Amino acid sequence: MAHEPDAAHDEHAHHPTAKTYLWTALFLTIVTIVEISAYYIKPWEQSAIYVPSMIFMSAVKFGVVCAVYMHLKYDHKLFRNLFVGPLMIALVTCVGLLFLFGKVGINLGITG
Amino acid sequence: MSATALEPTTTGHAEHGHHHTSTGLDNRKIAIWAFIGSECMLFVSLISTYLIYKGKSRVGPYPHEAWTDPATGETFKAILNIPVTSFSTFVLLMSSLAMVLAHNAVVNRHVKRTTFFSRLEGNSFFWLVSTALLGIVFLMCQAYEFTAFVNEGLGLTTNLFSSSFFVLTGFHGAHVTAGVLWLFTLASIDKKRGLRTDEALNVDLCALYWHFVDVVWIAIFVLLYLIK
Predict the structure, then answer these.
(1) At the fourth CATH level, which superfamily is domain B37-226?
(2) Whether residues A88 and A66 fall in one domain
(3) What are phi and psi for residue B68, nearest 5 degrees?
(4) Which terminal residue of chain B has fewer beta carbons within 10 Å of its beta carbon, N or C?
(5) pTM for this one?
């Protein structure tokens, strides 16, 4: 019987180096500093772009940790699916609930 | 089909810690990812609850604005302490770095190290203990924050904000505590006999859990603390 390639063997073959991890930590620290600064910069904090920008920066940090530290960028795609699948279900449910309870809404321009 | 094709083959690489599976992937790693997926649902449901109840508390103290009790005339300041939480967020980020370096050290156990920094890079025990200690610092910050809240009159059942806040951050803190215990277990094994390269998966599973706890905090920090 032919010996199939074992994905577990290649598991650590393409993992990043310590240098990459340090650069990632630096990037995450800088983004966190920007987030905290935004909270204290009144014009930014009171602007319409504050919430979207905070969510965007948070999502970037989330994605970077998952991709680099959790090795989703390098590992088998089954792991990515096992993580992203439930995450998407949860996020869609969350957004649905926020719409349902009137926390977010779409202005369709319909007046009563 | 031969009988051997149906048998789960645990021979060959089993002695090195690898098991042949139908996917070619280690079942323990698939299990931890499935577990993390289910944990996503748990934390998103808790975050959703917090967001739905946000701004619906009838009595204070409130997270971002001062409140005067109409019955007593007592004024309560905004309850959230952003500087302390910013520090604890930084601590958790650094713990993730230490965790990934611990895993890296075990994976690259065979690499010859001569200089001080390369020896430090390869010292998995140091990185595992550092991660656990940073986790403890995070928990201490959380204990300080919770104590301050209670002293300022915000208990678990005071209002909708406090209930959803304490449950969410309390669950997260419980996960950090479990991670710290897991890290100390690995560190004690490493100290006793040294973790071998073929045992890197044991560290990898703990690392995945720890990084998940970190990414949950990334979301909590922005949604609870920084967005008013």
Answers:
(1) Cytochrome c oxidase, subunit III, four-helix bundle (1.20.120.80)
(2) no
(3) -110, 125
(4) N
(5) 0.86
CA B58 to chain centre: 32
Tell me whether A77 touches chain B (CB under 8 Å). no
Lowest mean pLDDT among B18-27, B95-104, B144-153, B158-167: B18-27
Find how far residue A81's CA is from the centre of its chain.
14
Instruction: Return the SS3 of B96.
Output: helix
pLDDT digits (tens, 9 = 90+) for B180-218: 999 999 999 999 998 888 888 999 999 999 999 999 999
Chain B residues closer than 8 Å to A22 by CB: 97
Domain boundaries, given as residue ranges, for chain B: 37-226
Q: Find the domain containing A80 and state its range.
A: 76-103
Q: Which two tokens stand for residue B171?
A: 């669950």
Which residue among B51, B99, B227 sits closest to A98, beta carbon to beta carbon?
B51
Could you give the number of structural domains in chain A? 2
- Angle between helix B200-220 and B160-193 (nearest 10): 160
Domain annotation covers residue A8: no
The verdict on a CB contact (< 8 Å) between A83 and B44 is no
Q: How far is B72 from chain A (nearest CA, A)?
A: 32
Chain B interface mutation, best of A27, A79, A91, A104, highest count of B Cβ atoms under 10 Å: A79
In this structure, is residue A12 part of a structural domain?
no
* Domain shared by A57 and A84, yes or no: no
| Cβ–Cβ under 8 Å, residues B121 and B101 | yes
CA distance B30 to A13: 18
B41 vs A11, A86, A101: nearest CB: A86
Least reliable range by pLDDT among A52-61, B56-65, B143-152: B56-65
Q: Which of A6, A62, A98 faces B18 most closely, judged by CB atoms?
A: A6
Residue A9 has a CB neighbour count (10 Å cut-off) of: 12
ipTM associated with this complex: 0.83
In a domain, A52, yes or no: yes
Q: 26-55 in A: which are within 8 Å (CB) of B? A: 28-29, 32, 35-36, 38-39, 45, 50-51, 54-55
- A64/A21 same-domain check: yes
